[in-house]
Amino acid sequence: MLSRLAAPLAATALIAAVAAPASAAPGQDKPGNYSFAVIGDVPYGADQIAAFPGWIDQINAANPAFTVHVGDIKNGSTRCDNPYYGMIKDDFNRFRNPLIYTPGDNEWTDCHRANNGGYNPLERLSYDRSVFFAQPGTSLGQRPTKLDADTANGFPENVTLRRQGVDLAVVHVVGSNNDLQPWTGIGNTTATPEQVAEQQARMTSSINTVKSAFASAKQKNDRAVAVFLQADMFDPTYTPTWDDISAFKPLVQTLVDQSQAFDGKVYLINGDSHIFNSDKPLAAGSPWLTTYGVSGSADNLERRTVDGSSNNKDWLKVTVGRPGAAEPLSFERVPYTS
Fold it and tell me: Above 70 in pLDDT, residue 318?
């Protein structure tokens, strides 16, 4: 990792000068189709840090229209020092086509931990924004794209994008109960007033961003809405307490309400729990409806969790079908070859 952090950036500049293959438009597999990539919870640890540029090159070779990183650019037991963020931004700018990133908890919320450096998480959040969102409304990558961002309210990471009848919302919602769990590493036993205020404002922005995507889809008679975030609000790998998930309830209710009022398909794509999963957590009869105490249900919402951490052996290829296709989006896990 130290060699990566200290390495010169000449290789990145060289890659930026390489043109994309002329044989196909970005993400175009067949006429009327396009695909994009989703990754998350990567890179984790020294081995993945070393492998990450090569994995990006493999994604570039597939030529997706864009890539979404759903957060956690480091594991939860390593330091949150400034040079690391710069290194990952250089990696992100290795993507030939646009890279859209939403922060995860490991790069700010959990930085209070002693083995993370004992940082104030809100300071790390501010630094994360200064590195990755220095140009609000513009993605990363060598061929950046314009995004509709909630910059006016201080949340440039909350963005929407519309492509060929599919509306996407990428929102900043993280594990650790969306940062309501105490910062014990710096001596706190309960959430501070600043913590609570930040969480409430960020959740409001996230909900408004989701609503904006649905409003666009309904106005334009689009066929699907896809929402991306870091937190696994329906983690099947453990039984959460209310203190683990309480902050997510307003967003869960919003997803139910907006999905019920939308005639198309809704997709929720997240990271956080590290194990690929496909389910319908808000369909009628789901126990999650009772867990969150929300009203209504959303049978038209389905979810994917991307592989991450030690399971990060593939990237998720999402293909948007031609108009009239039975399923607007289809999914394929594409293994890394090395």
Answer: yes
